[in-house]
Design a protein that fits this description.
heterodimer; A: 830 residues; 6-stranded antiparallel sheet; 45% helix; disordered N terminus; B: 207 residues; 5-stranded parallel sheet; elongated
């Protein structure tokens, strides 16, 4: 293949269809300065329809294109082309829709892309292609070439169609001239015919409108006179080119001033034209393209902006995901990126606290902006920025009110763009870029958006740093805490346990994590509670008793809280547990000790009553003996009737029973048995207790009054223990009565149904009362006012009553008597 | 060994004990040996029904509500009541026993007691006090007769007791021997004494 080969007369009207057909057959790809081996590799992936032209000189290639001699479908610029972007730009100056691929080493791609982005006169069909991707290249080349061909085919078909119509026009028929005139005038496009000197020969109505002129004014006037002076040469050369060349030239766009100050754009297509006198001159087609040009410009700007943002995003991503960088290195890179994008030398991240401006990070040659420098906020442009929710930017302070700002007076910083940084919802500081030179371009919306992005990115980095530090603190606390912590997912599967839980249970992380949590898995009350609590968004508290790996019991006071995500969906449960094993064991030990103490106290009470009991027991014994002996007498031979024996024997049995009752009472009272609460009648308890102290009451000449309602409620107690309490109270009362005249000693035991669900027992004596300074100490262990007393009676009694869920206390005391009250819960029907 | 009791002077066993069973048992025992028995549930009840001079013995419980056995014993002693007290108690309490014995209890028995011991104690108390009660009865009789003598007759009697003959008495009182003889006859008649010796003994008892 050579450059000269496809020399068909494509421009001649007769061969046009053939040329179109020809294009279907062959794609012309031009490889400029492409490495041969690489080209070969690409070629091997292309179909045979593709012809590759290898060009070793890019300048030669450019001049060929300028001459319009080449039929080209796509161009590949090799890595050896020294300035590929400039080359592409020159190619596009000629044909802006020609696809150009720039091969590049990976390392250079980014730079090239950026160059392209900032290259104004470049069309859209330029693509940087990394030379590492050979296979993909073939595909995109094919694709681009196809598109190019398709477009050309469409254009050529349109032109051919126009020719056919021209050919069938009845130009030679009478009135044809008028017909053409009419056609011209009514064309929606402007058509101007010029003479060989470039003066307007004819023009249609549309042209007059576009040029804002009249026939009289226009005809004979050189066309360029309607254009600004600077365009005169361009128009002249356009017309000359049209006359000299046979080809139809590509349209060119001219800017025209208008009366209202808004410029408008005209697209001008020139073509050769033969005057009726046979002279060659030029015909110009005018089309107003203001809207199109504006739309195109906007689109171009939008694309540039998009590229800017995309570039920034890519850079952020690259910086953000680079795990090797420290946070401050990342921020510095972003600052450098910003400096590049905004074309300034200084980038600063500041922290603003009250009136102080602290330089956190910076990229700058200016010493006052070095990292760690502290400035007065008023001396910075950022004083405005920190209060603004939008970026603050100006290109040239000297030409704006900013020249009044003290910062400008101090440093002559001309260009500035800054945005505040919001961390955790509060203004944290600013991100700003400043330059000492005025900026030629205004800061675009895209650049402002990019700055916002940068500010948000830095905010998230700074916030992340804070959050990370916070998380580190939290997680360290969780790891260090003595409390157990378990986190499960929604289904109750354990996701995390802390070392405290491992240490407590003896189970290792791997034995628990990933398995359902035992306490959540159990059915029953807890699960019900938990679900109810989740509904109410409450915590659940309960005591968890379980065994460790070594089969020891442990007890945890658990709190389970549901954890929800931002949308309010339940995601996890957090269970914290305080180890209360020691506490519970201590309580258990304490309970046992208390029971023992209670028993000892009971024995002690019994001991105190021994003489009374012995006396009580002696009576039936004495009676029994006497009856029995008398019976024996009655059995003496010759003595009286046997029937008399009956009385004695009956009495013996009765008295023996009486003695037995006393023994049973003592045995019950002194027996050490487990506390057994049961439904008991208060009346029975009081009477049994009185049974014990009856003798003492009797011998102390005390009058005992009982006020027990017949329908006294049932209580739920250990009867023996409550008897113990009552005996203690009554004996205390007996002691309190020692000083009282024998005939007046009274003890009253009153049982009342106290408010709701409780029964109250009041033991009242008419003794001399408790001394005021003793009252507060009555229930202290080992406090006693009696010589022989141990001082445990009341304190143990109180312990007993409280263990029953009741209360024992001094109700009243005065010189006329004392009342102790005991309040016990009633038995409830289960 | 028992002297057949006259109807009026049959001694009674007073049982004072707050325990009804003990009370009844002792009563039953005493009735078995045909002793007259009265039972009291307290010391106060006993005092309310006791006639001073009544013959009998008290079986007394120490520990009782109200007045205790020891208190009753002291009250009786204060009124010089001639009645033997047998203390029965459930406690072998030495200080109480000593106090009771010092106060004149004739026996201190611990419950439960041997029936024979109680009966023996009761019998011996009754027999010991039988003579005391007889003597007391006589003394009261003598007191009654001596109190009927006139002043002059008492003067004569006092001189007679010193063993003075009528002649000396008459001289001492500055009355005639015949008047002395007259007084002597009246004294013998009023006191019912059969001889001078008997009269002397009478005087001795009274003092």
């Amino acid at each position: 293949m050579s450059l000269d080969e496809p020399k068909s007369d494509r421009h001649g009207s007769k061969t046009r269809s053939a040329a179109v057909a020809d294009r279907n057959e062959v794609c012309q790809l031009f490889f400029v300065n492409v490495d041969r081996a690489f080209a070969f590799h690409v070629a091997s992936n292309l179909s045979c329809r593709h012809h590759i032209e290898y060009v070793s000189s890019s300048s030669q290639f450019e001049s060929n294109i300028k001459a319009g001699v080449e039929n080209i479908d796509a161009v590949l610029l090799g890595t050896a082309v020294s300035e590929p972007v400039a080359t592409a730009q020159r190619i596009h100056a000629h044909d802006k829709r020609l696809p150009i691929f720039i091969l590049s080493a990976d390392s250079n791609s980014a730079k090239l892309r950026q160059d392209i982005m900032f290259c104004p006169f470049l069309g859209h069909e330029v693509l940087v292609w990394p030379n590492s991707d050979v296979d993909g290249l073939a595909a995109v080349l094919t694709d681009a070439a196809e598109r190019r061909q398709q477009r050309l085919r469409y254009q050529e078909a349109a032109i051919a169609n126009a020719h056919v119509q021209l050919e069938v026009l009845p130009l030679l028929q009478p009135g044809a001239a008028q017909y053409v005139e009419g056609l011209f005038d009514n064309e929606p496009i402007g058509v101007i015919a010029t003479d060989p000197d470039g003066r307007i020969h004819t023009l249609n109505r549309q042209s007059r409108q576009i040029l804002d002129t009249t026939d009289r004014e226009a005809i004979g006037t050189p066309l360029q006179d309607f254009f600004p002076d600077c365009e005169h040469d361009r128009i002249k050369s356009l017309l000359d080119l049209a006359i000299s060349s046979n080809s139809r030239l590509s349209p060119e766009v001219f800017e025209l001033p208008s009366a209202n100050g808004m410029n408008f754009f005209v697209e001008m297509t020139a073509a050769a034209f033969t005057m009726p006198d046979g002279k060659r001159s030029a015909m110009v087609i005018l089309q107003e393209v203001t809207l199109r040009v504006q739309a195109e410009r906007q689109r171009t700007e939008a694309v540039v902006e998009l590229r800017l943002i995309a570039n920034a995003l890519r850079a952020f991503h690259a910086i953000g995901t680079d795990t090797k960088l420290t946070r401050s290195e990342k921020i510095r890179r972003v600052l450098r990126l910003g400096c590049e994008q905004f074309g300034v030398q200084t980038g600063i991240v500041s922290q603003i606290d009250n009136n102080a401006f602290l330089v956190l990070e910076s990229v700058s040659d200016i010493p006052r902006f070095a990292v760690g420098k502290r400035l007065s906020l008023e001396k910075t442009y950022c004083a405005t920025t920190i209060d603004s929710s939008e970026p603050v930017a100006f290109e040239c302070a000297a030409q704006s009110e900013w020249r009044q700002h003290s910062t400008y007076k101090d440093c002559k910083l001309e260009a500035y763009i800054g945005m505040r940084i919001i961390v955790d919802g509060k203004p944290f500081g600013t991100l700003c870029f400043v330059g000492s030179q005025p900026r030629t371009r205004p800061f675009s919306a895209a650049e402002r958006e990019t700055l916002k992005l940068m500010s948000q990115w830095i905010a998230s980095e700074l916030g992340g740093e804070r959050a990370e530090a916070h998380m580190r603190k939290l997680s360290s606390a969780i790891e260090q805490t003595a409390d157990s912590l378990i986190i499960t997912d929604f289904s109750g599967r354990v996701e995390y346990i802390n070392p405290a839980f491992e240490a407590l249970t003896g189970f290792f992380h791997d034995e628990i994590v990933g398995h359902p949590a035992k306490f959540l898995d159990s059915d029953g009350q807890l699960r019900t509670d938990l679900w109810k609590a989740i509904g109410d968004d409450r915590k659940v508290e309960f005591l968890l008793s379980d065994r460790t790996k070594n089969d020891r019991f442990y007890h945890l006071q658990m709190t389970i809280s549901p954890l929800r995500d931002e949308a309010g969906t339940l995601t996890h449960f957090i269970a914290t547990g305080r180890d209360v094993t020691a506490l519970i064991e201590a309580k258990e030990t304490d309970r046992k000790r208390q029971a023992e103490l209670t028993h000892v106290a009971r024995l002690s009470t019994l001991g105190g009553m021994v003489s009374g009991l012995a006396h009580e027991l002696n009576q039936p014994l004495c009676a029994i003996m006497t009856y029995a002996q008398t019976c024996l007498r009655k059995l003496e031979p010759g003595d009286s009737k046997l029937s008399e024996l009956k009385h004695g024997l009956t009495q013996i049995v009765r008295q023996a029973e009486r003695a037995d009752e006393i023994f049973v009472r003592i045995r019950n009272f002194s027996r050490k048995k487990d506390i057994r609460r049961q439904r008991s009648c208060m009346r029975t308890i009081v009477q049994s207790a009185i049974g014990f102290v009856q003798t003492e009451i009797h011998h102390n000449n005390v009058k005992l009054k009982l006020r027990i309602p017949k329908n006294a409620p049932l209580v739920f107690v250990d009867a023996i223990q409550i008897q113990q309490v009552l005996i203690n109270l009554v004996r205390n009362s007996i002691d309190a009565l020692a000083e009282v005249d024998e005939t007046k000693r009274t003890i009253t035991i009153e049982v009342t149904a106290d408010e709701e669900k409780h029964t109250k027992v009041l033991v009242t004596d008419n003794g001399c009362g408790c001394a005021e300074h003793d009252v507060t100490r009555l229930f202290e262990p080992f406090f006693t006012t009696k010589e022989a007393g141990l001082g445990v009676g009341l304190s143990i009694s109180q312990g007993i009553v409280e263990a029953h869920g009741g209360k024992l206390g001094l109700e009243a005391t005065s010189s006329r008597g004392t009342t102790f009250g005991m309040r016990l819960p009633n038995w409830k029907r289960p | 060994m028992q002297t057949p009791p006259s109807k009026r002077n049959t001694p009674t066993v007073f049982i004072v004990d707050d325990d009804p069973a003990v009370r009844d048992a002792i009563r039953w025992l005493m009735e078995q040996v045909r002793l007259k028995v009265q039972v009291f549930a307290s010391a106060d009840e006993f005092l309310a029904n006791y006639t001073p001079g009544a013959r009998g013995c008290i079986i007394l419980d120490i520990r009782m509500p109200g007045m205790s056995g020891l208190e009753l014993q002291e009250r009786l002693k204060a009124t010089r009541a001639l009645i033997p007290i047998i203390i029965i108690t459930g406690h072998g309490d030495v200080p109480i026993a000593v106090r009771a014995m010092k106060a004149g209890a004739i026996e201190f028995l611990q419950k439960p007691f041997n029936d024979q011991l109680l009966l023996d104690t009761v019998q011996s108390a009754l027999s010991t006090y039988g003579e005391i009660w007889d003597q007391e009865a006589r003394r009261q009789e003598y007191n009654k007769s001596l109190s009927s003598l006139t002043k002059r007759e008492m003067e004569v009697l006092n001189l007679l007791r010193t063993g003075k003959p009528n002649k000396l008495i008459a001289a001492a009182l500055n009355i005639s021997v015949r008047t002395v003889e007259g007084h002597r006859a009246t004294i013998m008649a009023k006191t019912g004494a059969k001889s001078l010796g008997e009269l002397i003994e009478m005087l001795h008892l009274q003092n």
